[in-house]
Design a protein that fits this description.
The chain is an alpha+beta fold. The protein folds into two domains: 41 residues, Arc Repressor Mutant, subunit A (Orthogonal Bundle), CATH 1.10.10.10; 81 residues, Alpha-Beta Plaits. It is built from five helices and four strands; from the N terminus they run H-H-H-E-H-E-E-H-E. Strands 2-3-1-4 form a four-stranded antiparallel beta sheet. The relative contact order is 0.16. The model has no long low-confidence stretch (mean pLDDT 94).
Length: 153
Amino acid sequence: MLDKTDRKIVSALIEDGRASVETVADRVGLSPTPTRRRIRQLEEAGVIRAYRADIDPDKCGLELAIYVFIKLQSRDRESIARFESRIMALPEIQRCDLITGAHDYILTVRLPGMKDYNRYLRDILAEMPGVFGIETSVVIGPVKNTPHLPLGD
């Protein structure tokens, strides 16, 4: 469990992953040495998994965001493993989550446009082994997109 200082450190790094240890230390009210130690402990514990750039997909020509709901024919281990292995190899899929309800997975897909998705749906998704059903929702536009976590104070 994170204490108050750890939550402040995580919040500071979410806001600016490139912040120096000194800057983070100033924000949380510690000196740099214990701040550096705490950051290292958070990394080793897997709380901080990586430091990444926040890239705008639209500005990279990937203007179409789509949620694809997948239902598998069978949910045996082999079918799940085959499906998940194939998903991992597809760079257009930004995210894949196993979900409850009427579908088994939700995929977040980014592509340049609808013609590209039409091809992707027919040539890639529909041809995946074990896929029984596919439903698609097109993202009209973002309402909220924040990296912040509700960590409290």
